[in-house]
Amino acid sequence: MRLLLKHRLAVALIAIVTLLGLVAPTPATAVPDEPDKQAVAIGDGGAVASVDPLATDAGLAVLRSGGNAIDAAVATAAVLGVTDPFSAGIGGGGFMVIYLADEDRVVTIDGREEAPDDPNFDEDVFLEDGVPIPFFPERITSGLAVGVPGTFATWVRALEDYGTISLAQALQPGRVVAQSGFIVDETFAGQTAGNQERFSAFTSTSELFLPGGEVPAVGSRFRNPDLARTYHLLQREGFDGFYTGELAAEIADTVQNPPTVAAPPFTVRPGLMTTPDLESYDVLRPEPTMNEYRGYEVYGMGPPSSGGITVGESLNILENFDLSSASDVDRWHLLLEATATAFADRNAYIGDDRPQYNYVPTAGLLSQDFADVRAGTIDPTIAAPKPVSPGNPCPFDGNPSLCVPDDDAVDGPAGNSTTHLVTADQWGNVVSYTLTIESTGGSGIVVPGRGFLLNNELTDFNSTGDGPNLPQPGKRPRSSMSPTIVLDGGEPFLAVGTPGGSTIITTVVELLVNRIDAGLSLPEAIAAPRATQRNTTTVGAEADFRATLGAGLEARGHVFSDRAEIGAATGLEILPDGNILAAAEPTRRGGGDAGAN
Q1: Do the Cβ atoms of 376 and 317 come closer than 8 Å?
Q2: Which one is catalytic: 83, 108, 310, 418?
Q3: Contact by Cβ (8 Å): 528, 512
Q4: Distance from first CA to last CA of the chain, Å, rounded?
Q5: Does 571 map to a domain?
Q6: Whose CB has fewer CB within 10 Å in the chain, the N or C terminal residue?
């Protein structure tokens, strides 16, 4: 342990020196090989948890050099854009929830990808001859799927409004790792192999991720000098360097003219994004959602994320039941029924809530009175047939002229990628940040010479049916990302989140119930077996969950299907003594990494 800590300190010190600009970001100043991952860390000078130790250490170095939690979150995310490129990066988007200690309030940043402002991007955009374009591989691997990226805008605005270091400093650790490289692990190699057919369809992608036509070997060093140069450009030019000028033109051209090989293995469709779409993009600042659960204040993201509302409604439903004294089977039965019920309402009512698109009855959906009505539809002993129908939040919303009861609406396909990080600093600031490029590997399209993949986030729109999440020009698709911060008596207590498509919502609910109701520690809550019920005919469940709880829940009428793993959570907790506990997955997705100063 002592050697591990010394090694991590060495990494952090090098990162600090690099951040301060005392050395040039060349292979001669490369970070050493990655330290071993550790799932739990405790300290009083700030903490970080992510899926990658180099990213975690970059955030810790920022904290150790005097930066705050927002600075650390951006630096961590920038490294994840290098080491976790199939889940996140500047070609994607995300949502950031921030607790500002000096102002004693929670703020959010919506960096969700946006559809091109083209009249042809309408509800039929993913149909051909009235039939949906095949989801895999064609719809997800196309220019049509690429939304205007929001990740870089999130970083810029977060630092401008709440940070203490410059954008150039925050990007420097990522630039160093991109230039110097990192050691390929089984997760990276496996994700590359799983995308080999898609990646091989594009010259730029195969050159970067399939050198010589082969998947990078586990234990080899992977370098991305193109991304290092892109980060250098953005260090110099900032926001405009991405959203205007040469890089913006290259992104738009890549979307409109995907760089396919001579004979791609499937049809690759061009997209509609233009340089004006990029030039007009900026983040939004929605009010956070908030609901009370067992006396705690739970803050999350509002629309176009469905995370804060659906997590909140699920918890409000569960407020009607005593879960702390319930058996494991009883508690899980109620939890699965609560999330199924909340998902019925999510699918019917939640989408982009800007006036030109939808009215989302957020207040009604988060009303405890509405949740009490919905809880009354749950049988505490027998599972209801799925799918269940949505309720009517309109009488509880306060805007009866705008809120219209909706028929049952279906959910669209959801990606299973994404990544989540949490940071906290010595002054009490906390960040919970989920970012993504949608599917593992995004659209599969690397911008030539720039070193990053473009997202396929527009596949989050429903391609058929009705409801608030159909494609429209300039619209942001509904998301399930659920970065969450929990306050206790107005002070930060927990920050949690996870990747996993629409299973993000159920996982966050489970984390909070495990920690608050079941009495598990945060590391135990993260490591515990998982299941997911999203108003579907079957409950997706990990093998360990089925082995321990499957029989009891099947006796209640639940029907299971197998999921290899659900999510890859990170979290932190402010302990009673003021120390910060950071926690990550011990095994899922290769395990995460937690660190503390």
Answers
A1: no
A2: 418
A3: no
A4: 15
A5: no
A6: N
Relative orientation angle of helices 167-180 and 151-162, to the nearest 10 degrees? 140
Residue in the structure block whose two tokens are 């698709």: 477
Structural domain contains residue 442:
yes
Question: Which residue, among 405, 309, 391, has the nearest Cα to 344 in the 3D structure?
Answer: 391
Is 50 strand, coil or helix? strand
Does a cis peptide bond (omega within 30 degrees of 0) precede residue 304?
yes
CA 99 – CA 580 distance, rounded (Å): 15
Rounded to two decimals, the pTM is 0.95
List strand residue ranges (DSSP E) for 428-559, in order. 430-436, 484-488, 491-497, 531-532, 539-541
Per the structure, the count of domains in the chain is: 1
Is residue 440 among the annotated active site residues?
Answer: no
Asked whether residue 39 is assigned to any structural domain, the reply reads yes
| Three-class SS state of 61 | helix
Sign of the C-alpha dihedral computed for residues 383, 385, 387 and 393 taken in this order? negative
Residue whose token pair is 């050198």: 211
Residue 302 within a domain:
no
Regions of the chain where pLDDT drops below 70: 1-34, 407-416
Contact status, residue 115 vs residue 460, Cβ threshold 8 Å: no
Tell which residue, 47, 52, 10, 46, has the closest CA to residue 593: 52
Round to whole Å and give the CA distance between 593 and 38: 5
Give the ranges where 382-437 is alpha helix by DSSP (H): none
In this structure, what are the phi and psi dihedrals at residue 491, rounded to the nearest 5 degrees?
-110, 145
Spatial separation of the C-alpha atoms in residues 77 and 89, rounded to whole Å: 8
Question: How far is CA 328 from each of CA 311, 550, 572, rounded to the nearest angstrom?
Answer: 20, 11, 24
* Domain that includes residue 63, residue range: 2-283+416-460
